[in-house]
């Protein structure tokens, strides 16, 4: 197994550890920050989750860079890399929704979009059509990552000025996610509709 694939599997392995640490929130307060809207408390769990998420995100960047530069792109890599990405991002979004820090509706819309797009791409692949990731899909991923980072940082530094940047980025990601889903459907509608 090559290095990029090992990094993808490492990212998959980090997800349950991140989830467990997130769910054990409150194990030892590390520091407290005073803002106009009240105190923001960071626990050891918060810090560990942030560090592991950063490591996992970096492996996502690293495995793609290594695979392309060393010509190590494999079928297994094409299979496991997007799964690792979605496990990481969707797990974090679900956890934030479960703790009422973000809207459940936003999370459902993004996960539904992913399921529909995956179905469209599998159907296209079965008919010999390869569908590359579109620009809107890439923008959606970047917005999701930044939304998650600001959610983990409890909206700092924007909490000082009362701007809900974490929520703004989350809803921007949701809108772009839906737009990219529509774009995929329009691109592949002939394949979808041909068997109706």
Automatic annotation (TrEMBL):
PANTHER family per record: CDP-DIACYLGLYCEROL--GLYCEROL-3-PHOSPHATE 3-PHOSPHATIDYLTRANSFERASE 1, CHLOROPLASTIC (PTHR14269:SF62), CDP-DIACYLGLYCEROL--GLYCEROL-3-PHOSPHATE 3-PHOSPHATIDYLTRANSFERASE-RELATED (PTHR14269)
Enzyme nomenclature, EC number: 2.7.8.5
Name of the protein described by the UniProt record: CDP-diacylglycerol--glycerol-3-phosphate 3-phosphatidyltransferase
Catalyses which reaction(s): a CDP-1,2-diacyl-sn-glycerol + sn-glycerol 3-phosphate = a 1,2-diacyl-sn-glycero-3-phospho-(1'-sn-glycero-3'-phosphate) + CMP + H(+)
Transmembrane feature ranges: 12-28, 40-59, 87-112, 168-186
One Gene Ontology term from the biological process aspect of the record: phosphatidylglycerol biosynthetic process
Pathway(s) served: Phospholipid metabolism; phosphatidylglycerol biosynthesis; phosphatidylglycerol from CDP-diacylglycerol: step 1/2
Membrane topology note: Multi-pass membrane protein
Key words of the record: Lipid biosynthesis, Lipid metabolism, Membrane, Phospholipid biosynthesis, Phospholipid metabolism, Transferase, Transmembrane, Transmembrane helix
Enzyme class, broadest EC rank: transferase
Family: Belongs to the CDP-alcohol phosphatidyltransferase class-I family.
Source organism (scientific name): Amedibacterium intestinale
One GO CC term, this protein: membrane
Location in the cell: Membrane
GO MF: CDP-diacylglycerol-glycerol-3-phosphate 3-phosphatidyltransferase activity
Superkingdom per UniProt: Bacteria
Main location: membrane
Function: This protein catalyzes the committed step to the synthesis of the acidic phospholipids.
